[in-house]
């Protein structure tokens, strides 16, 4: 990632007068320390770069001052930010909000130095974001607005890192020696990681990451060793873990529930069907819909159309209506109206599906949600702020080494129960991770030729 840096003369003249006045009051600004007046501000750099945002989306930029003594200082809050194209974008203390499609020019000035940079206000397009440093694990949006990833593939076992949207950078976090894990954000703001594989096979691992301390703690071990399970935060703050493939020794099949307050796992009655590569969706009524998947004892040929409901209060399962199509490795997204959108996946023959279905909890019925343009499995789905659903990437045949995945993306509109094409990603992503950032953009990451690369979707 490169910063935009220049030392151009200030425009317009009225801003020059302001900058001279600021210079008379001291060069570094807040945090400069003793001797600040002996160094002069030589240039200003802006990050992140390249600069993009969307209509109605606010993106924070940072201004860094570079001084004659080699020091730097954050000038974001003390510099003067001016939009030279206010009809396209507005700015306030580095926070740029798109108003209309086009290119805006933002001028940043402080103590006699200035920089202007162009920001593109776009829609339905992708732009590159910083590459991950290590590997891709489950993506979790933290309360701070940063994104946490831990675990991932077998290329770099146990890596963890943090993405800062304001700086567009990834930084290493305390590592986790597990791959193939699942994660849930706890009500405390910590991240619970469960299941997966270590160097010794499928594990009953559970660990809690504290973003404030950048450290892991080891809570109680799960009752089962499992891989390919789901992890769902319940309204009472406990976490439901269901299904997956079990490791040795042979175990009686059951689900389980973690209580952060007592740091303990308790058994949950087993689902009616054994499942892996299924979905578990927290409904508006506090219950959990589990749908699809395959029987691990049979393999992917055992894909199922069955679904069931977990009641956390009664600690019981009840059958839900079957989907129209048996599927595994699909996605399930809770919509704004309380229905659940299930998309794609693989059938019992391992072929990708283009069909989508809607589950209505109030009537316990499934209905058609149309068809994707491109059949896909192991894709990602994100509920957008406007209530639509973005589907991106995925695979056609994961067992084929030549299958690098799909670059296409599609959008589902619940209001008219139809699909439309979204802008294609800059590269194919076979098993992407995606998360909605606090400013309404979507961060998507997946493997390229060497390391996981990422990009941002602007609605």
UniProtKB/TrEMBL annotation:
Protein name, per record: Bulb-type lectin domain-containing protein
InterPro entries (alphabetical): Big_2, Bulb-type_lectin_dom, Gal_Oxase/kelch_b-propeller, Gal_Oxidase_central_sf, Kelch_1
Pfam entry (one): Big_2
Protein keywords: Kelch repeat, Repeat, Signal
Coiled-coil stretches: none
Entry annotated with the keyword Isomerase: no
Leader sequence segment: 1-24
Gene3D superfamilies reported for this sequence: 2.60.40.1080, Galactose oxidase/kelch, beta-propeller
Domain Bulb-type lectin: 274-404
Origin species: Trinickia dabaoshanensis
Superkingdom in the source lineage: Bacteria
């Amino acid at each position: 990632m490169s910063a935009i840096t220049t030392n151009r003369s200030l425009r317009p003249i009225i801003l020059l007068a302001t900058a001279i006045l600021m210079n008379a009051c001291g060069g570094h600004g807040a945090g400069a320390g003793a001797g600040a007046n002996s160094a002069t501000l030589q240039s200003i750099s802006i990050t992140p770069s390249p600069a993009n945002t969307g209509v109605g989306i606010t993106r924070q930029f940072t201004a860094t001052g570079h001084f004659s003594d080699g020091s730097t200082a954050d000038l974001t809050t003390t510099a003067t930010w001016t939009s030279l194209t206010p009809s396209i974008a507005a700015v306030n203390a580095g926070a740029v909000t798109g108003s209309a499609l086009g290119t805006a020019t933002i001028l940043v000035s402080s103590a006699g130095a200035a920089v202007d940079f162009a920001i593109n206000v776009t829609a339905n397009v992708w732009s590159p974001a910083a590459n991950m440093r290590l590997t891709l694990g489950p993506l979790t949006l933290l309360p701070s607005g940063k994104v946490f990833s831990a675990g991932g593939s077998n290329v770099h076992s146990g890596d963890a890192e943090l993405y800062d949207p304001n700086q567009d950078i990834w930084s290493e976090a305390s590592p986790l020696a597990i791959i193939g894990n699942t994660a849930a954000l706890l009500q405390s703001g910590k991240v619970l990681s469960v299941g997966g594989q270590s160097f010794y096979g499928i594990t009953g691992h559970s660990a809690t990451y504290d973003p404030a301390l950048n450290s892991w703690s080891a809570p109680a071990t799960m009752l089962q060793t499992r891989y390919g399970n789901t992890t769902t935060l319940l309204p009472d703050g406990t976490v439901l873990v269901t299904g997956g493939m079990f490791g040795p020794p042979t175990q009686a099949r059951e689900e389980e529930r973690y209580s952060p307050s007592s740091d303990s796992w308790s058994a949950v009655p087993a689902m009616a069907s054994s499942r892996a590569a299924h979905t578990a969706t927290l409904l508006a009524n506090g219950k959990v819909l589990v749908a699809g998947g395959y029987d691990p004892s049979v393999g992917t040929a055992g894909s199922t159309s069955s679904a069931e409901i977990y009641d956390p209060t009664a600690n019981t399962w009840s059958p839900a209506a079957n989907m129209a199509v048996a599927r595994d490795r699909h996605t399930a997204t809770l919509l704004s109206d309380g229905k659940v959108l299930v998309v794609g996946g693989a059938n019992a023959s391992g072929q990708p599906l283009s069909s989508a279905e809607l589950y209505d909890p109030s009537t316990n019925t499934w209905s058609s949600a149309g068809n994707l343009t491109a059949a896909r499995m192991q894709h990602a789905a994100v509920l957008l702020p406007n209530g639509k659903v973005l589907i991106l990437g995925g695979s056609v045949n994961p067992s084929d080494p030549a299958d690098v995945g799909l670059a296409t993306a599609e959008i589902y509109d619940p209001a008219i129960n139809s699909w439309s094409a979204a802008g294609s990603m800059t590269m194919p992503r076979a098993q992407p991770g995606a998360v909605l950032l606090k400013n309404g953009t979507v961060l998507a990451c997946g493997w390229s030729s060497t390391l996981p690369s990422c990009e941002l979707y602007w609605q």
